[in-house]
Design goal:
This protein has 388 residues and is of the alpha+beta class. The chain has helices spanning 3-10, 26-38, 51-56, 59-62, 76-82, 94-102, 134-139, 148-156, 166-179, 194-208, 220-229, 286-297, 299-308, 316-319, 322-326, 331-341, 351-368, 372-387; strands at 12-19, 42-49, 68-71, 113-114, 117-118, 121-124, 128-132, 235-240, 256-258, 262-263, 266-267, 275-279.
Length: 388
């Protein structure tokens, strides 16, 4: 056997799937390249899919084709049920996982824990936060909204954009319920008490009637692209944060990110997002995949290579890092309080069914109004189906 054959025999190729944005793609491509330089026999190829596919496509299907999966944490219950991905606590040292838990941004690390197993490493942390165009606020002599009433007044001027696709309107419903003092999916009989559920819907409708129709077809990325490409919308009150848009040179205009408005003096409690790095049970190279996952989630990589190549770290030391904050208009320092109080959405096995179907009626109600009780009844029926 010659040298080339020996090298070919020892060469390991891992495939990964992530989502189609600089935050999700270039960050892991960069870590994969550097990992390959440190481990020449291990090559990692990343592919990408749309943000909607990221939320929708079952991870058991992806795990048949890929070694590495960037996943959304509501899949944790599904993972525990199907064993499509490996429980990382059986492959990663207790010390490493304890460090990840201690340096979690809000409940990001916990979000991938289910049935006492750790199904992914939180390489990315996010929750809906506020964003605005500082240049336009100054030009138009506007004040940053502090309360929900302030927000509605700004929306009446046609200056407010929200992500209005069904999944995001569902997250907004969760947000209002939590801010009013009640979490969803606690009771097995109903998703939320009638009193809080109806109030939450009416609060969303109060804002929704002043939001332009085009926003109801936008996800968070499209909101930020619209805000930076055009000079129409000056403020977004709650869209999943993307620190990329707070970096000079990324978009036509820079966005400033901050904490959100209050309802009854309580700052909005948004619904935790972010992404985790998981490993397929079908991988033939689990040991090498685990080594790469540890490398990507480590504090040094998160503070350096990951952030510098478009990533939004999941490690707390990166969020507190002075250089990172200087290079992002204090995105991380300003939004960390929102992350730390964010609501950890349900992760039971059937919740993805509810998440896929419950947003549309809320979106319709925000746009056109109607009977809030009928909407809440519809949500309760979907909830019961998801439990079964």
């Amino acid at each position: 056997m010659n040298l080339f054959q020996i090298m070919k025999k020892n060469h390991i190729h891992l495939k990964g799937i992530t989502w189609n944005h600089s935050r999700g793609f270039t960050s892991v491509v960069a870590t994969a390249q550097r990992f390959h330089e440190l481990n020449p026999n291990i090559e990692i190829t990343w592919e990408k899919r749309s943000l909607q596919a990221f939320a929708d496509e079952p991870i058991n299907e992806l795990a048949k084709r890929y070694d590495l999966l960037v996943i959304d944490h509501p899949w944790a219950g599904f993972a525990a049920k199907t064993n499509a991905i490996i429980p990382l606590n059986k492959y990663i040292s207790k010390e490493f996982l304890e460090d990840q838990a201690f340096n979690s941004v809000g409940k990001s690390h916990e979000s991938y824990s289910y049935n006492n197993e750790q199904w992914a490493l939180a390489i990315d942390a996010a929750t809906p936060v506020a964003a605005y165009r500082p240049d336009l606020f100054e030009k138009l002599e506007l004040n940053i909204p502090k309360t929900w009433e302030d927000l509605v007044e700004l929306a009446k001027k046609g200056l407010v954009a929200i992500p209005g696709i069904p999944q995001d309107t569902l997250m907004s419903f969760y947000m209002i319920c939590c801010t009013l003092g009640e979490e969803v999916c606690i009771n097995k009989e109903y998703i939320i008490s009638e009193k809080v559920g109806l109030k939450a819907l009416e609060i969303l409708r109060e804002l929704g009637k002043y939001i332009s129709e085009e926003c109801y077809s936008m996800n968070p990325i499209q909101v930020y692209e619209s805000m930076t490409k055009e000079d129409i919308y000056v403020y977004s009150p709650f869209a999943y944060g993307y620190s990329n848009y707070s970096k000079t040179g990324y978009a036509r205009k820079v966005l400033k990110f901050d904490d959100m408005v209050s309802i009854n003096k309580n700052p909005l409690i948004t619904t935790l997002g972010g992404t985790g790095l998981a490993i397929s049970s079908n991988s033939k190279h689990i040991e090498e995949a685990v080594k790469y996952a540890e490398y990507t989630a480590s504090a040094n990589t998160q503070k350096g290579l990951f952030f510098n190549n478009g990533g939004q770290p999941g490690h707390r030391k990166a969020w507190l890092n002075t250089t990172i904050n200087f290079n992002s208009l204090d995105y991380f320092k300003n939004t960390l309080p929102a992350l730390d109080r964010a609501f950890l959405r349900p992760r039971y096995h059937g919740h993805m069914y509810f998440q896929d179907n419950a947003g549309a009626p809320i979106r319709e109600f925000m746009m056109k109004g109607g009977d809030a009780k009928q909407i809440l009844d519809k949500l309760n029926n979907l909830y019961q189906k998801s439990l079964s």
